[in-house]
Amino acid sequence: MSARPWWQSAVLYHIYPWSFQDSDGDGIGDLRGVETRLDYLVELGVDAIWLSPIFPSPMADFGYDVADYCEIDPRFGTLADFDSLLASAHARGLKLLLDFVPNHSSDRHPWFVESRSSRDNPKRDWYIWRDAAPDGGPPNNWISDFGGPAWTWDEATGQYYYHAFLKEQPDLNWRNPDVRAAMLDVLRFWFARGVDGFRIDVLWHIVKHAGFPDNPLNPDWDPATGEMNRVFQLHSTDQPEVHDIAADMRAIADAFGREGDERVLIGEIYLPVERLMRYYGQRGEGVHLPFNFQLIDAPWDTRHLARMIAEYEAALPPGGWPNWVLGNHDRPRSATKRGAAQARVAAMLLLTLRGTPTLYYGDELGMENGAIPADRVRDPRELREPGLGLGRDPVRTPMPWDDSDHGGFTTGEPWLPLGQDWQRRNVASELVELGSMLALHRALLAIRRVTPALATGPIRLIEAEGPVLAYEREQDGERFVVALNLGHTPAPIDLPRSRPLLSTLPGPLPGGTPSLLRPDEGLILKVDALP
Predict the structure, then answer these.
(1) Count of CA atoms in the C-beta half-sphere (13 A) of 299
(2) Which of 22, 107, 201, 364 is an active site residue?
(3) Torsion angle, CA of 389/401/51/260, rounded to 10 degrees?
(4) What is the three-class DSSP state of 221?
């Protein structure tokens, strides 16, 4: 039987390059900075790093407005710096993934500059242009994900162009075969350079309904959730043609990979589970991992989580591999959402569920959302829809490495302020603090690495009382139980004869088979073999 591809047992680590490590004192993280911290990542115990966009960009949306798909933005370094980082990562046994942004480019990209220059330019159809509605307004009622109309009028050529996000991020027309060919060549360029895979930004957005009908109105729209939710994105996202494109991307990835050195594609897709599953492909020809974001916003109660895990596992197509995420560069941090104590329990959940977990930088420290003064706000989402709590700056604050000036992140002025507790919650402090969040993550990752059952073995949910979520993992004749107390009071539990291997709480482990979980405690236990 063929060995499993590396990414099935791997733990991915998501780096937001702006905020990880600055090497030149300009207050912005960069590639050389990331390279200096690779040993930290090896010691942490992760297997691969994913970098948010590092391509040339005017930074209207901090790199998700790409002006050149095959270069490096000078803020982050050079192609030579990238090659050095890649070689250094590989030398340490780390894989490296990039962020591919196929739905839209920057309005400064040469393709769009040509496209908007005239109606008869050969690249006009590389983007989505439409005549005004009969009343002179936008062609339909589609709304930008950042609020406001998704159409911008171009006075020079007398048409509207479509942008699912900012007007500086015009959407590419993936129905045009030349666009498709050019963008697939971008994947080939980076794969040929040695990149191990891609996270594909807003994959479900890249094809729109050919007729551009109005999206249906949401009768239950709450303005506090943002203007984008005023309509259901029925026609502007998740069109059937996207799956052929995903299959083309997959074929390229597979062509560059070989057994033991596979390439991986991870799709960013915020959809209900039954629609998410289609992105694996009808015969496994889609992306390897359609991101499963359910844990981020899941109600933190046993019944809901147990049902969510069971239904997700049951929905997976044959050969489909699960994956789990607790946070990312767009969503509130786990420690803010659940509190410091339950964030430890959540970490054990993330790293012991069946499938590939993605860990967001700083979550291993228990970083919380940062407080961003009004005059330091950078995120266009917050600037366009202020006060709704939709801004992403709080989850993108610089990584605190020690308690020196600016947390060891930079010798200059950081592009965003550090989190409010960085002088206490930083890497250097947590490395020497027994029972720190970092110590817990290192222990979890270490036990996962030497225990195949916790990474790739089958999962079976165990009925438990009250606030306890419990499940069994088994492989190669070894059985383990994970028991998580989602509450703040002691919780009884009935377990098979077993011995605790790791607790989320510091201090000595319980002796023998415990009958009680302490408040906010998670345990990994090895089940005794039957005599």
Answers:
(1) 8
(2) 201
(3) -130
(4) coil
Could you tell me what percentage of the chain is helix, strand and coil, using 3-state DSSP and rounding each to the nearest 5?
30, 15, 50
268 as an active site residue: the answer is yes
- What 3-state class would DSSP assign to 517? strand
Strand-by-strand arrangement of the 478-485 sheet: 459-462, 468-475, 478-485, 522-527, 498-503
Whether the full predicted model's pTM is greater than 0.85, yes or no, is: yes
Q: Rounded to whole angstroms, how far apart are CA atoms 8 and 55?
A: 28
Six-digit token pair at 283? 């015969």
Give the active site residue among 81, 268, 382, 521.
268
At how many degrees (to 10) do helices 437-449 and 340-352 cross?
Answer: 10
Q: Specify whether the CB–CB gap between 21 and 59 falls below 8 A.
A: no
Helix axes of 177-193 and 242-256: crossing angle, nearest 10 degrees: 30
Q: Do the Cβ atoms of 151 and 142 come closer than 8 Å?
A: yes
Residues linked to residue 461 through DSSP beta bridges, in sequence order: 471
* pLDDT > 70 in the chain, percent: 99
Beta strands 95-100 and 129-130 are: unpaired
Do 21 and 29 contact (CB within 8 A), yes or no? yes
DSSP 500: E
pLDDT in tens, 64-93: 999 999 999 999 999 999 999 999 999 999
CA 239 to chain CA centroid, Å, is 22
Neighbouring C-alpha atoms within 13 Å toward the C-beta of 353: 26
201: annotated active-site residue: yes
| CA angle in degrees (0–180, nearest 5) for 228-230-233 | 65
Backbone angles phi, psi at 303, to 5 degrees: -65, -45
CB 365 within 8 A of CB 426: yes
Rounded to an integer, the average pLDDT of 135-156 is: 97
Torsion of CA 116, 118, 121, 123, to 10 degrees: 10
Contact present, 160 and 132 (Cβ < 8 Å): yes
Per residue in 55-93, is it b (16+ CB within 10 Å) or e — as a string?
A: bbbebbbbbbbbbbbeebbebbbeeebbeebbebbeeee
340 Cβ partners below 8 Å, 6+ apart? 366, 437
Q: Where are the alpha helices (DSSP H) in 409-482?
A: 427-432, 437-449, 452-456
